[in-house]
Specification:
Elements: E1 21-24, H1 28-40, E2 45-49, H2 57-73, E3 78-80, H3 85-91, H4 103-122, E4 127-130, H5 140-151, E5 158-159, H6 169-180, H7 191-203
Parallel strand pairs: 1-2, 1-4, 2-3, 4-5
The structure holds iron/sulfur cluster (SF4).
Amino acid sequence: MVAVCDVKRPKLELPDQRKKLLLHSCCAPCSGEVMEALLASGIDYSIYFYNPNIHPVKEYEIRKQENIRFAEQHGIEFIDADYDLDNWFARVKGLEWEPERGERCTSCFDMRFERTALYAHEHGFDCISSSLGISRWKDMNQINGCGERAAARYPELIYWTYNWRKGGGSARMIEISKREEFYQQEYCGCVYSLRDTNRHRQSQGRERIEIGVKFYSNNPDQK
Ligand code: SF4
């Protein structure tokens, strides 16, 4: 286990005197700060990686392996859930042209959180949350609504709506990503977000996204 970085963070406590958190993680950059903040506060948690939205499989594997590497460094249990792509496509059918933060994303979060809640229910966790909300590209209210809906399926479970961005969380997320030289994904995850991000880039005369090439750098001379 490596030391948690020496920064000032608020002391966190699980809400409602809960004891054990299952943290849905979308990727290493988003969960790095969340994981270290939980460790610094002595909160008992495991990582649940369930992201069948991520396309293509090469991108999925890179994001997952980065997250495993970081969890192992910190001695945190990493639960590697299914990559049930067919179910994901079935879930978002008809929503292919929705913009980001629209209805497709609600279905995508619902699916991921429903599985997280089920696993929590079956394995003795009494609280769930997600690293998804730390990203400034995401709508916290949308994520929290999906999380609360999923947790409400089980009487013993709650969704922790903590805002991971506050108290310097957003800045530490970038610091940790650079320190760890994490893989830097350039789109949200699904094939539709890849399509739309590439369209936007091309409209600005930029190159299309190349999977697997961009990493955060610890070198201050590089961005
Ligand atoms: S844009 Fe992101 S959150 Fe929305 S459906 Fe695609 S992967 Fe899921």
